[in-house]
Design a protein that fits this description.
The protein is α+β, with helices and mostly antiparallel strands. The protein contains three helices and 15 strands.
């Protein structure tokens, strides 16, 4: 019996070791995945969050299919900096003032559930008006210089657009598109930007639903500043990696956003 038990123990020993080894591998994998998710959530919440551009409202600066990193720390943190915007606190923590000309992701009021991306053109206290397509800030026309005539096709509709270099009062320059200077949003009333709010406009001026329509944006609604394009795909999703060789816009990779 002793020999038999001894042989039985010898036979069961390697199997037991394999089970323990397998359990250890699973435990390490779960541990690694857990900490990877924690780190990813930390980075997404406090540092950089990826977004993709689904519409042409920021052309020619941002194209449909651009994937961008948005810095969450640029303006401090509000509840909208967190996933699902939990109502945990009011105001902003470590708040920093955005600069005129920044391209910003924000929550569209009043529902505060949909992410929008536009350019900040009006600061608190500014008087903003568009007259015959030209942006006016505090009664002064913003300088714009004609660069080229471009053609764009979206949803099967070709458009002829004029590209301008617009220079804001603080010296920040960026390119915009105008299809006409007589669209419904090319002649607006004068908006006075309230304290704690900002006036946002899309660079594709005649095809953007922005503060001319939805009004000035509360400071707490700012999610972060758009800093860099890390991938740009023409007609493909990010996960469709097998299409990248012919859908990737290689010239846009890791371009800074101005």
């Amino acid at each position: 019996m002793a020999d038999m038990n001894g042989r039985k123990d010898e036979a069961l020993g390697p199997a037991k070791n394999k089970v323990e080894h397998g359990a250890s591998i699973i435990k390490e994998a779960v541990y690694t995945i857990f900490w990877a998710l924690v780190i990813a959530l930390f980075v997404r919440t406090l540092a950089y969050e990826p977004f993709n551009i689904p519409s042409g409202s920021m052309k020619p600066t941002l194209l449909i299919g651009d994937y961008i990193f948005v810095s969450k720390f640029s303006y401090g943190y509000s509840r909208h900096s967190l996933p699902w915007s939990p109502d945990l606190f009011e105001g902003r923590i470590f708040g920093e003032e955005p600069e005129r000309g920044d391209v910003i992701v924000f929550k569209k009021p009043p529902q505060n559930s949909e992410d929008y991306i536009k350019r900040l053109v009006g600061m608190p206290g500014d008087r903003i008006q568009v007259i015959e397509g030209i942006l006016h800030i505090n009664g002064e026309a913003v300088e714009r210089e004609k660069l080229s005539v471009d053609f764009d096709e979206e949803n099967g509709f070709p458009r002829r657009l004029t590209r301008y270099l617009e220079t804001l009062p603080n010296g920040v320059s960026h390119q915009i598109w105008e299809e006409s200077d007589n669209y419904y949003s090319d002649n607006t009333r004068e908006f006075v930007v309230p304290e704690g709010h900002y006036f946002m406009m899309g660079d594709n001026r005649d095809h953007s639903s922005d503060s001319r329509v939805i009004g000035p944006i509360p400071y707490d609604n700012l999610v972060g500043r758009a800093d860099v394009i890390f991938v740009s795909l023409d007609g493909a999703e990010l996960f469709e990696f097998w299409t990248w060789p012919w859908t990737m816009r290689f010239s846009r990779l890791f371009n800074g956003i101005e």
